[in-house]
Amino acid sequence: MQVTLRIQRFDPERDEKPHFEEYQADVEPTDRLLDALNYVKWYVDGSLAYRRSCAHGICGSDAMRVNGRNRLACKVLVRDLGNPITVAPMLSFQLIKDLVVDMEPFFAKYRALKPYLIADDPPPEKERLQSPVDRERYEDTTKCILCACCTTSCPPFWANGDFYGPAAIVNAHRFIFDSRDHGADERLATLNERNGIWRCRTVFNCTEACPRGIKVTEAMEDVKRALMLRNI
Amino acid sequence: MQAQVSGVLGRYTANKLGMYAWALHRLTGIGVIAFLLVHIIDTAFVMVGPELYNEAMALYKQPFFRPFEVALAAAVIYHALNGIRVTLIDFWEGAARIQERLFYGVLVLFALLFLPSAFIMLRPLFVR
Ligand code: FES
Fold it and tell me: Which domain does A175 fall in, by range?
């Protein structure tokens, strides 16, 4: 089957600003968008730049705006996208080339909220045990692959790039609600600041964008309640 | 050289209602604030003199002003109801999961409150 791809192109060495170009790709209906992009890159125009690695929806490299909505190119099928398919980079980040954006600020925010276990008690002889109920508390937020689909779908983040954004907060949630972790207070203090959790306006774009099906807004609300009602 | 891609509503499509509920909330919020500013100014006219104040108030009673008042009522009612929805989402665990149903609730309550108000407000324009 023939599909037309409308891809946003930008070459920092030649272009003042991004523009769209059309390509034909010969793909199966059951191929993924990533296969169609590969087709363009391998057989039509080798200069097309995009990130991908695992091709199985787990590395989080190939998030992009597909028909105006954040998706992983390796996780959507061509037949579900209509024709033509519009492909553009994620919003709000600096463009590097074509579909590649600078993710460094995104990871900096992720690191700022300390996405690792903070436990000041002496390590036990074996492992730190946890009940299934306690484990379940943060199950949803363990699934994040840091693709940035949620953060770049978030209107408050478009308006203010200093907002930590849903992805960083999802990963903070993962540890705030972990019964073995003792760093909740420091993380919550950071999230209580100007560019913290209160920038969230419950738009729900993040929940809809997440390719892992994480209920992102719900996690954000958990954090808000933790701050308002002091119940973790 | 790098180009900045700024996010604007038109460049992103959401198929959950949340984004549109929020955009409408913003719009009505700004509208209500704008009216409030105008209203503070015209009320302040009373300090200048009662004639000026009365003149300003008479302006509101003009028929052409009615549709604006109806729009203001719509903005206030929507903003209040959706505000309750957002508050529920913030305080009540589980509300986030039914946010779309809550939004439909907002629309139903909006219709129940707004349509009769609009009827009462516009009726004098047509029957005397
Ligand atoms: S290529 Fe790894 S998530 Fe798509």
Answer: 104-229
